[in-house]
Write a structure and sequence with these properties.
about 650 residues, mainly beta, 1 helix, 45 strands, about 50% strand, elongated
Length: about 650
């Protein structure tokens, strides 16, 4: 019995090792399939990204310099196609500075920008409340402003994050210090302000959550029951904040709201350090998962903290009433922060997208600061199982500062698009640029967009054989066109002509043109291969064309049946004349094009027939006739 228990335990142990190694090995085919950088002579940093039918909209900040001041920031939007090509770019703002927060698609062809503004001119034409407003701008697919409006009070409003709600309205949420104007109340220094507007910008609901301490919301999710759940920050139990406080600088304050934005339940989580909710909240089938920042030294609710002088990412899984099911600290001995949130995958695992300064602990592949040894941010992606086990970890960047936007696009579980702020690297910095393939002429900050995917699942399909002529006379058809059917997995196509001495081939995606060499006769083989960001397909089965020089082309005749065909080549008409004694009965002649389609039929009467070819396209044609069991077939040319 004891032996059986040992055997079972060993089997489970090796099964766990196998599953983990399989998960790690499954990432071996993942790669940056394409990347592109965008920017100007000024510093720019990606803030958020959303999809469009043509590609992606990236919201970023841009630092503008003014000789009368020092510098100020504007918001800039880039529209980029699915291959990374820039479609258009537009700057939004006024004269006093804007700080972008989010961009949202309404799935109806319009997009919402959320920006903190200090301006009351330029694009900011609505009523400005003072001290920094929440500015929301609705644009169309070309970047034209549909409407814009400032929301806030006499205090300061942070740039809002945006959510599209199930009823088509928009939730804007961030911190505020106001208690007037559009903000119904202020409980202390910094409160959580939830604002619901309709697609025309009209306020539907406005609620504030907080107390006398600092409360700052970074993420929220609409729940299946029509309510909301968020995890924010509370530094004391006071006012509407209730629960068991853990005695540190702050706790995570988790709140479940009903459909009327009333608190259903709330709970505090943390230890003796600084704990607060960050970007990253998901409703699950039987509860929630949220991300937080923690430096609590393995006490209270926090276990697994990587000792150092900087915070860890804290992943907390709770049930539907707030009980902790599991928790995990992610990171190393330096700064780790969940900048871009958490995303659930089809197998119930989770992807956490963060920034890191750590080169140890859970962090793998950190790019150190070159020979100087200076540390800087890397983008860090880590995958957790449904039970919180670390399955995989990878860093992206170079020796400079690379930080993700507030969100990434989960195009599929094995296909991610990341927008980031990144350092500019010169050609001489090739040993420092790491994953970045962009080369700049000056140093500074730029937008880095890259696609990270499992290319084993995204290789282009091999094209079907091209279509084109089966046979031709190059004295008549000096060029020929070949075509293939398109495929959604392909970005483009390569074409091949063999042997090369047959002619030259030029391609335009799905179509290629061959210019034939006048000295070549024989078979020519034309094939195509598809390519995309992951690689190139195999070559298609070749289309074979028989190439002839039709000058002095002899007729193929059977003994005893001789028919003269002239003039050949023909222009207006062609004559078929039997050389033997004329026969009284009509003999049918059938005419075919190079694709084998019958294009004409006429009788030979008294041993002669005349075919009008003025309506025929230039090219090679075939004829056949039969007389008393004897047959003749041949070719003629119309030009």
């Amino acid at each position: 019995m004891k032996t059986n228990k040992i055997y079972i335990l060993l089997s489970i142990f090796f099964l766990i090792i196998f599953l983990n190694s399989t998960a790690l090995h499954a990432q071996d085919n993942w790669q940056i399939s394409w990347q592109q950088c965008y920017g100007s002579e000024w510093d720019e940093e990606a803030v958020a990204i959303t999809e469009t039918p043509q590609g992606y909209l990236v919201l970023a900040n841009i630092k503008n310099f003014d000789p009368n001041f020092d510098f100020f920031w504007d918001a800039v939007v880039y529209h980029i196609d699915k291959k990374g090509n820039l479609l258009w770019k537009r700057i939004y703002g006024g004269s006093n500075g804007e700080y972008p927060g989010d961009i949202l698609s309404d799935k109806q062809g319009y997009y919402y920008l959320s920006i903190k503004t200090y301006s009351n001119d330029g694009d900011v034409q609505s009523v400005y409340h003072g001290a920094g407003d929440r500015w929301i701008v609705k644009i169309d697919i070309e970047g034209n402003i549909i409407w814009e409006r400032c929301y806030g009070g006499s205090g300061e409003e942070y740039a809002a994050r945006l959510k599209l709600l199930s009823d088509g309205n928009i939730l804007a949420y961030s911190a505020t210090t106001s208690g007037d104007g559009d903000v119904p109340v202020n409980y202390g220094y910094l409160d959580n302000w939830l604002l619901i507007i309709n697609p025309d910008g009209e306020i539907l609901q406005s609620r504030v959550f907080g107390n006398i301490g600092q409360n700052n919301i970074f993420d929220i999710t609409e729940t299946r029951d029509g309510g909301f759940f968020f995890a924010t920050k509370a530094s004391e139990v006071e006012g509407m904040v209730e629960g068991d406080y853990h005695g540190g600088q702050s706790d995570v304050w988790a709140v479940k709201l009903d459909t009327k934005l009333e608190i259903e339940w709330q709970k505090l989580y943390g230890g003796s350090g600084l704990d607060y909710g960050t970007q990253g909240v998901i409703e699950l089938d039987n509860g929630y998962i949220f991300l937080a920042s923690t430096d609590s030294p393995n006490d209270g609710d926090v276990w697994g903290y990587h000792y150092g002088d900087k915070p860890d990412i804290w992943v907390v899984r709770i049930d539907s009433i707030g009980n902790i099911l599991w928790q995990k600290c992610l990171g190393g001995s330096s700064w780790d922060y969940p900048m871009a949130g958490i995303y659930q995958m089809q197998d119930s695992s989770f992807m956490v997208v963060a920034e890191t300064w750590s080169s140890d602990g859970d962090v793998q592949g950190y790019h150190h600061g070159g020979s100087s040894g200076n540390s800087a941010y890397d983008i860090w992606m880590s995958r957790l199982s449904a039970d919180g086990e670390l399955l995989w970890s990878r860093c992206f960047g170079g020796a400079g500062w690379e930080r993700p936007a507030y969100n990434v696009l989960q195009l599929a579980d094995d296909n991610w698009l990341i927008a980031a702020g990144a350092s500019k690297y010169k050609l001489s910095d090739s040993l420092l640029s790491g994953d970045m393939a962009c080369v700049s002429e000056e140093y500074g900050r730029q937008i880095w967009l890259y696609n990270f995917k499992d290319c084993a699942n995204y290789m282009p399909a091999t094209p079907q054989p091209p279509t084109g002529p089966d046979t031709l006379c190059h004295t008549v058809d000096s060029t020929s066109v070949y075509q293939i059917a398109g495929d959604s997995t392909a970005w483009g196509y390569h074409w091949l002509l063999e042997p090369t001495e047959a002619g030259t081939i030029t391609a335009d995606s799905l179509q290629a043109m061959v210019k034939w060499n006048s000295s070549y006769q024989g078979p020519a083989h034309i094939s195509a291969a598809a390519w995309n960001d992951c690689g190139e397909s195999a070559w298609s089965t070749a289309k074979t064309t028989m190439v002839y020089s039709c000058v002095g082309m002899p007729e193929q005749k059977e003994t005893g049946l001789a028919v003269a065909v002239y003039p050949n080549p023909a222009k207006d008409y062609i004559i078929f004349e039997m050389q033997a004694k004329a026969v009284a009965t009509a003999t049918p002649i059938d005419i075919f094009d190079i694709y084998g389609r019958k294009v004409a039929s006429l009788p030979m009467v008294s041993g002669k027939a005349v075919l009008d070819v003025k309506s025929f396209s230039n090219g090679v044609y075939f004829y056949q006739l039969s007389h008393k069991g004897r047959h003749q077939a041949g070719k003629f040319v119309v030009q």
